Amino acid sequence: MGGVRIPIGTVARVRDAVRSPQLADWTRTLTRFLTLEAVVQGLTFACGILIVRALPKADYALFTLANTMQATMNLMADNGIGSGITAIGGRVWKDRSRFGQLIATAMRLRRGFAIISVTLITPLLFWMLLHNGASISYGAVITGVVLLGFYFQLTVGVLMPVPRLHLEVNRIQNLNVWSTALRLVLLVIAYSTFLNTAIAMLAAAISLGLQELLLRRWVPRMAEPGAPVNEGDRREILNIVRAQAPNSIYYCLQAQLTVWLISIFGSATGVAEVGALGRIAIIFAMLASVMGNVIYPRFARVQESGLLWLRYWQILSAHAALALVLLAITGFVPDALLWVLGPQYSHLKEELFLMMLNAVLFSILACMWQLNVARGWIVSPWLMIPTGVVAQVILIVLLDVSQVRGVLLLNIFSMIPGFFLNLLRTRQGIREFIASHAHQQPTA
Prior knowledge:
Radius of gyration: 22 Å
Number of strands: 0
Shape: globular
Largest sheet: none
Oligomer: single chain
């Protein structure tokens, strides 16, 4: 782009990169990955649809709230720590001792943030469950199961980047296949006897427990267990956290805003409908999994300044094209998709398209955000948050957020500023990277 100084020889290196065996290797890796990922996401989709069809709307509303708040806890406990692991790990992953120090440092920080997250979110979760029809005892049981699943997520979130940065894609996928298959088996058993929100969340927690167990066995080969906390890593992660935490919390709130607004201003029926439509939008999980396990770690490891723009646009363009194809499919076969959810949700044609459009835009925005944080390029919260909050306040006034259609439109329009801000940060980050490497070679 204009104003970016490109080192001599970059054009030739970019041309060679497009033709290189490395690009062919990416293609082979993606092909292998997608085969197993189809199995993983098929199992995940089966779990979600079984729960949607088995639970009455009142209970499925509670399940949606429990899932949403557990995700909120996990995001607030991370606050950029995962991004720090990826950014630093992209430099030190070959050194088992240093990688061990990074993981030990990240684990200590994550546990500290987890205490804050649980303290803030648990009372809100319990109140929302009661507000949407749960009894005190049932709400307490659901809350307890949510905390159990969150406990396993803490470790999984820190350890999973280790095999990712070592590009052990098949091992990660096998882990996902077995853990998701276990969850489906548990749900089928419960369905044949007794299935409710607490049991459905317990099946998910047990699945996460299996992931934690296996990761604890695998990681010592790649990162030294018992390594001391590294003060330099701690400072760098905290710098990333300070830069990213406000944005992470904002994105967290925005992602869950649909459920929260319909829960507070609407009804349990509306919560259930939003949650059920979200089961269809889970088809984007395959795309997110490919990006998280295959693409972002490789982008984090790119050290050729001339390749950054090329890889960035290759990744973002391919991601957007696939997301738009999925949206087009939704527009052609809405009745078939709603049939999957069951007769309780067959009237939601317009809402289904809006939910999928929301998922497409959020998926593309998340791709831009993750590409940036993989390099440690964080959008200033002083730009992102005020812009987004002002847009959301205006939209809340203009739209009927007691209806599913209204909250979906709010989510769609409120994402627009994020696209421009993330693109500007990418351009700035690449210019900074080129400037920092300018001393290594002459420039034109």
